[in-house]
Amino acid sequence: MQHPVPSAEQAQWLNADGVRDVELAFADVTGFARGKTLPAKAFIKGQQLRIARAVAIQSCVGEFPDYRFYGENDPDVTLLPDMATLRRVPWADTPRALVLCDNVDHDGSLSPLAPRSALKAVLARYAARGWTPVVAPELEFYLFAPDADADAAFQSPALRGSRRERGFDAFSFSTLNDHEAFFDDIYSGCEQLGIQTDTWVHEMGPSQFEINLMHGDALALADQTFLFKTLLKETALRHGLRAVCMAKPLAGEPGSSMHIHQSVVDASGRNVFSQANGEASHVFHHYIAGLQRYLAELMPLYCPSPNSYRRFVKNLAAPVNLSWGVDNRSVGLRVPVSGPEARRVENRLPGCDANPYLALAASLGAGLLGVEEELQPSAPAVGNVFSSGEDSSELPSTLEAALAGMRAGSACSRLFSAEFAAAYAAVKEVELASFQGEITAWERRFLATLA
Ligand SMILES: NC(=O)CC[C@H](N)C(=O)O
């Protein structure tokens, strides 16, 4: 694999902007940015960087699974920059750039442990059919006051006139105005990072917001979502705020999702979910059936923590089922009303805590398996599935149950690799052991006083 150098034009702006360092970054399995920083002069000359292969599977508690999941001698990978992603870092005072990288093993292949490789593996299966997925992620997140004691509930930030948001406040503009300086920085940060945003809204929860990204290529959108979450957190810190992408940060309030709208186009750009006469195609129904058949066993990839499963409660617009239906927000797989060229399905299951590469890989992978196997979906749901009780046991309700389902099935290793499937499950076991090793505030509050 040829090691890339920045183009003459890129080298020129790095020099002209006085960029001192370039971050060679990638998302680990938790979705957190990791990598190394290189002086810009060395980057321009094409200096290669290596990093331990295991960094891609660092758990959210900082520990790694056993070495057998990444190589007994703890080997390196090469960080291979994707020069199309080279950008100025918006949150840095000293001029700095970042470039997103693939992790490449010594044999020149993409390391199967890296989330960007997992998404590329699924996209290659689409490409082999001459198809390209089109996706649009929607991200919800909360803004909180900083320095919360980890044992205390998050607090909404102070607003103009010393107000604090309480209760539901969906689609208001007032709080967007309260945080105008923060949102201005987010907008210009998005521009610098090449993140194409569409609509912004105040979501239902106190200081909960949603941003929709413009639909497009899946790898580009995974990169943009990863960068957006990093931008969000860094910008919030600079404004004395805390941006939180946990799936369920506040008890009794809505959780935060990362819905994924998805369709597929052929080489001529035609949406394969529609027939020439405008009706839904067989592919569309197979695709939905694939989501229904495989999303449950892939759930740890897009609902990755014990907290993720707290989001799935009825009547808070979070899905509790794998039903599908047209213009129906009570189902997990919603088909928005659209013309034939925009026919798509919205997977409402992923939380905002998901790693975007893995959430997209799982969602696109499940749909593709349905097409490959020509599966048939259930009949579309009609009416409110929350109240009809069609909440089924098709979805696991804890991370433990989801992991057991993933291990019992084969979709993860079929879509990615046996190595990735084993390593990912091992990371989740490390995190679960740490979670179960903590005594919670609830236990202290209610159990300590019992005789
Ligand atoms: N935008 C919405 O439809 C709300 C989604 C809801 N917050 C969830 O957790 O899934």
Polypeptide structure, described:
By secondary structure, the protein is α+β, with helices and mostly antiparallel strands. The chain folds into 2 domains: 1-111 and 417-451, Ubiquitin-like (UB roll), CATH 3.10.20.70; 123-416, Creatine Kinase, Chain A, domain 2, CATH 3.30.590.10. Helices cover 33% and strands 18% of the residues. It contains 14 helices and 15 strands. The protein has helices at 8-16, 40-44, 115-128, 174-178, 180-193, 218-238, 282-294, 299-302, 356-372, 385-388, 399-408, 411-415, 418-436, 441-447, and strands at 21-27, 33-39, 49-52, 76-81, 87-88, 96-104, 132-144, 197-202, 208-213, 216-217, 242-244, 258-265, 324-326, 333-335, 345-347. Strands 7, 8, 9, 10, 11, 12, 13, 14 and 15 form a 9-stranded mixed sheet that branches. Helix 11 (399-408) packs antiparallel against helix 13. The chain is globular, with a radius of gyration of 22 Å. Glutamine binds at residues 140, 210, 254-255, 257, 311, 317-318, 329, 348.
Quickly name the level 1 CATH class of the largest domain: Alpha Beta
Helical stretch count?
A: 14
Distance between the termini: 67 Å
Question: How would a crystallographer describe the biggest sheet?
Answer: 9 strands, mixed
Name every ligand kind in the structure. Answer: glutamine
Write the element-wise H/E pattern from the N-terminal end onward.
HEEHEEEEHEHHEEEHEEHHEEEHHHHHH
Number of domains: 2
Q: Can you identify the CATH superfamily of the largest domain? A: Glutamine synthetase/guanido kinase, catalytic domain
State the secondary-structure class.
alpha+beta
Which stretches are poorly predicted, pLDDT < 50 over at least 5 residues? none
CATH topology of the largest domain: Creatine Kinase, Chain A, domain 2
Shape: globular
Whole-number radius of gyration? 22 Å
What is the number of beta strands? 15
